[in-house]
Amino acid sequence: MSVTAQLIANGIIAGAIYALVALGYTMVYGILKFINFAHGEVLMMGAYFAYTCVNYLGMPIWLALLVAMALSALLGVIIERVAYKPLRYSGRLAPLITAIALSIFLQSMALIIWGSEIRTLRQGSVSKGNEIFGAVITNNQLLIIATTVGVLIILHLFLKYAKLGKAMRAATDNLPLAATIGIEVDKVIGITFAIGSALAALAGVLVGIEQNIEPTMGITLGIKAFTAAVVGGIGNIQGAVLGGFAVGLIENIGIWFIPSGYKDAIAFLVLVIMLIFRPSGILGTKKEEEMGKTESLFG
Amino acid sequence: MRTGRTENPLLQIKGLNSWYGQVQILHDVHLQVHPREMVCIIGPNGAGKSTILKNVFGLIAKNQGEILFEGKSIRKMAPEKVVRHGISIVPQGRSVFPSLTVRENLELGAYIRAGSESASIEQDIRKIFDKFPKLKERQHQKAGLLSGGEQQMVAIGRALMIKPKLLLLDEPSLGLSPQMKQVIFEKIVEINRKDGIAVLVVEQNARLSLALSDYAYVLELGHNRLEGDAKRLLKDKRVAKLYLGGA
User: Fold this and answer.
1) How many A/B residue pairs have CB atoms within 8 Å?
2) Number of domains composing chain A
3) DSSP-assigned states of every residue in A245-272
4) Model pLDDT for residues A147-203, shown as the tens digit of each residue
5) Distance to chain A for B61, nearest Cα, Å
6) Does some domain include residue B36?
7) Domain count along chain B
8) Which residue in A50, A250, B126, B134 is a FRET match for A263, CA 20 to 30 A apart?
9) B95, A181: Cβ pair inside 8 Å?
């Protein structure tokens, strides 16, 4: 076993999770220019949905995953309709505060429904690892990477070729202009929340299989994925994936150099450095021209 | 004027008042566009020319009055519904989707057409390429990387993809070189004369638009000032003094 290979493998596994969650932040930001800070809590709810399906309804894990993704997609759409849509033209601060309130609300809900005990979706004993390029990777971890890569490919194909995927990209480029060519803005925003929330639920379930489920799990994961989205360039889909893996790798390689107790701090250090030296992120571009145009369209 | 102004208007605006917040921009404005007609709205900055187009397309929250398209009220209708009645708009500025390719921009122009008729959409894209051969060469490039004139071609091409009955153009020559202005206006005239699409164009460049339009409205500070046959207005002393720099 090589330590370097192991750190890189751990970084990729963590990065896969961050990438899945970062996509939700970046897709919503791309269209609505607002950070959905309740996104981490959707992830947490998704994990609990799957937990309930497995432990109370006796579903196999794959079915529980699908149900959890569907329920979370629905939750995301409801959140958008009930909490954010009425505030769409109320400036930037109002939806942000609402998102923070929602996040506290969902955490409290989970605490009431499922209690504060730590749960897990881990099944059987800890599985024996496979040695790949000198790193020990468990079957579950392989599953995390394979699922993430598969989902990313599907998302990429959807955005590139599907009519709705193209409509989503158009809405991200210029929302009012998209409306003038007949794209149903509310529908596209709803689908964006649904996809982002389903991906968050997938991440939540994968974390639950690998580690634990608790009502506060969305906070750290959410903030790290948000960091990943900013590092990659907020609003940029490829950027979110790149940022996810970047944060995962930096964090896991970082603990080679500093005490592992500081692991969580590394992501924030990266965020601060990024915001100082390249606030638009790795793949982000300044879109002043588009922004000006959007405003001129609305006058 | 090629078309009689006696037949039923395609677009009819009556007594339109419009506000941005507390500020009233349009005062009791009236305007008509008839089928196959090219109509321009001219007037100095801040006259409210673009505001009229935005009102037609449901982009203004606060207004009063009547906006009828083919006799049906479209006032307060959301933009994504207005376009389904057969009206297209080319908003001011480089109104393309910059991160999408030229071809994707055109395809999305046909968004409201059923996906099943993809062969006919392909045929219409080819027609746009015939009209703007430059776009064919650049079809796989991101629209945001094109020159201003080429982006305007993409925007106009995209607006034609629904085969509109009425095309609204907001300052199509803004920020373009004199040669490119000429090219864009020639195409607009071609769309109007050859394809028979009614055009309502807002322009700062009064001379050019008066010379090419059938009918013109002169707007000042949100009020109708003058209107009439465009060629006649071009020779009108009042128009010349006010908007054509004393020519």
Assistant:
1) 83
2) 1
3) HHHHHHHHHHTTTS-GGGHHHHHHHHHH
4) 999 999 999 999 999 999 999 999 999 999 999 999 999 999 999 999 999 999 999
5) 10
6) yes
7) 1
8) A50
9) no
